[in-house]
Each structure stands twice: as structure tokens, then as C-alpha cells.
Amino acid sequence: MNWPILSTLIIIPLIGCITILLINSTDDIGKRNIKLVSLYASIVNFLISIILWVNFDKLSPDFQFVERYAWLSENITYYIGVDGISIFLIILTTFLMPFCILISWNSVKDKIKEYMIAFLVLETLMIGVFSALDLVVFYLFFEACLIPMFLIIGIWGGVRRVYATFKFFLYTLSGSVLMLIAIIYIYIVTGTTDIVKLDTYLFDYSIQTWLWLAFFISFEVKIPMFPVHTWLPDAHVEAPTAGSVILAGVLLQMGGYGLLRFSIPLFPVASYVFMDFVFVLSVIAIIYTSFIAIAQEDIKKLIAYSSVAHMGFVTMGIFTFTEQGIQGAIFQMLSHGLISSALFLSVGVVYDRMHTREISVYGGVVRKMPIYASFFLVFTMANIGLPGTSGFVGEFLTLIGAFKVDIYVALFATTGVILSAVYALWLYKRVFLGQIINDKLNVLEDISSRELFILAPFVLLIILFGFYPNMIIELTAESSTNLINNYNYSLEQYQSFLTLQDVK
Prior knowledge:
This protein is mainly alpha-helical. The chain has 20 helices and two strands.
């Protein structure tokens, strides 16, 4: 392709922002136009991302659609491109954004212009994160994502939004400071921030540990992993529905993406050294947060803890350094992005009617909202990992990868599958089944055509990827294989180095 498709994806949401700023009317027509501009911009971006997918060569492990322009210096450039690992995350981003706007159509009534601009700017930044091939460019996009999300939670969030948004901001910013220091060091030592060049650079084994830790802490907070996960439930509870969708669907995946793009390729030896450490944190996250989820009385908080548990499978799969484990982790990132987003969208549907997320308030909802209950059941089964859904494929592959490396890690992680069934089915039973004991539920109406349009695509994709996972696996296969081969080659060099040291 001759035209800069990635830059187009980055710019279109900004064009939408400029158009919104030109709308001065504050009446109902003006508000409607603002919503329409935001929706059209996000839809156009999604369609362009489909063109990106269609033209992507799945047989090549190299970066494609590469663009490079002079920026800060000869060695720090605006350098972007995609491979099999990043392309599906860009598509996931552009796919979710129209639904975020649609779910907010009637629920957000104040500062609509600012709200839509925040989401469009966030879309630009997220696409930039997944396409950046320069460390400095990546860091700027990565950190800048905090700003619109900070505003979304802090302005349009719930009662404790100030506490939640500051906790979210401070946790993620603190972790990223170490990564910035590491990037500066890398530039001083190598003279470049080009990811492609750095992938072939072998850092001194003694310094790899510190660089790996600096990057890992940043990504650990973003995922988030135990014990720095506590900001996520607070952020989810206070965030508006669309904010929770982006937070769970895309922002969490940045952590897993960072491990795949930077931690393993740049610091393979340190990644090997810390493999058991990551396994322990992953297993704790899977089991511990599952137990915490069982004890929750807020629907969104339960789903938030569920997200932490499911992202534990991602980190576990990545550090198996096996084909099944890494491909399973990538698939799990996509699957979790769809399932958790669908669950938060579903919670938003009933919250708009009842204005509460307390589980104790509900019961027997299926009697008043049978279609809605059916949708939620599909998402619940997918969250459990029922065969035939996308949730099963990701977890199954990561467990196979773990079984190949450490059977005890695989056994402990498997208990997370059982526990997820416990809290998910418990939630469904309390909210949807039984008798209606709250008279306020009698006025509930089933989902509208707009809500049906929002939820139906998620059902289709979750089932489609469950029965035909090769749509994703074939896309990521070459990049995953290339990552593993480079990792194994680096370890061989390290073993040779140790042998020579012993001889001396």
C-alpha cells in the first residue's frame, strides 16, 4: 500500500476532535451532532483498520505498513509499523470505540463535547502505542493515554471518582518513571531508540536484569498483576461504562503487549531468569483475585477482579516461551478484551435503568429482561471459558504451554478455571434467577434496539473465535514463532558465554 494507513488511523480521531470543537451549538441538535461526528469518526477508523487486516501478510514475521519520518534527531524518529502481535490490538481498539460512544448516547448528559473529545484523543493514543517502533514514541503515547482516562474517570465517574482517578494515575505513572530511566540509559549506551535495531542488540547480561525490572514494573502495573492490582477495581467501579470498556478492553492489554514487544525481545536472558518469578505472581493473581471476586457485592468490582485473574493467564502464557503459551496469551488478550468489554457494557445497560450495581438489589431479572439475560449468560459462559467460546481457546492454550514447562504451575492455574465458574455463576444466579423481591425491578424493560445493536456483535465474535480460532492464530503465528526463535538464539549465546567463562 502506498498511502500511510497507520498515520491515517492515528489522525482521523483527531480530525473528529477538531470538527467537534467547531460545533458551537449547545442545544439538543448541537449535542446530537457532536455524538454523530464522534460515531462517524470511530466507524471510519474501524473500517480503515479492516483494510489494514485485509492487506496484512500473515506469512511474514516482519513489521508491515512501516512509516518513518524525521523527528527529534537522526536516531529518534516517528517510526511506526505493525506485525502479527500488534495488528489485532489496533483492530480491537477501533472496534470497541463506536460501542463506547453508542453506550454513552443517553447516559452522558453533561460536558458531552469534552467527553467525546476525550475518547477520540484516547483512541489516537492507543493506536499510537500499538504501532510505535521507537521507544521514545512508544513511551509518549503510552504515558499520554493516562491523561484522557484520568479525565474520563475524574469528571464523569461515580461518587468516589477523585480517589479512584488519582489512585489510577499515581500507580501507572510511578511504574512508568522507571521505564523512562531505562529508555534514557538504552539511548546513551546504544545511540538509538529504534526497536528493530535494538532487537538485535545484546545488552550486557549484568545490566539486563535492571533494565528488565524497569520495564516489567511499568507493564506489571498496567496489566495489572499482583500485588499492584488494587487500583483497577476502584477505577472500574467509578468509571463510566464506556471508560470501563476501554480500561478492560484495551488499556490492560498494553501491559501484555509491552512484555511481548520489549521485555522478551530486548532482555531475553533476564526474561528467562525471572520466568519462575512471573509464574508465581501469575498463579497468585489467578487464585487470590478469584477468591476476592467471590466476596464482592458490586457487579463491576467482581468483573474487575475477574479481569485481574484472567490477565494472570496472559502473563503465565507469555513466560512459558512456548508456541502454545505465547499464542494462547495473545489470543487471551483479544478474548478478554471482547468478553470483559461485553460484560461491562451489559452492566451499563441495567445500571442505566436502576442506577445501582449492588448485587443484593437484583434478583429474577430474567423475568423482566429475558433477551438481556440471554446475552449476559453467553458472556458469563465465555468468561468461565466454556468450550465453543473464545474464552476457552486462550486459557486452554496457555495451560498447555504451562504444562510443558512446569506441571505444578499448570495445576495451580487450572484451579482458577474452577474458581471463575464459581463467582461467575454465583453472580448470574443472584442477579437473574429466582423470584423478584425488589418491587423496583417490576418496571424494567428489556433491551432497546440500540442496546441490542451494541451487544449482538460481541456474541457473534465470541462464538466465532471460539469455533474458528485460526482467524487470530494464523495472524499471530509467524510473529510468535519469530519471537520464540530469537529468544532461544539469545539463550544459546548466553549459555556459550557462561561456558567460556567457566573455561577461563
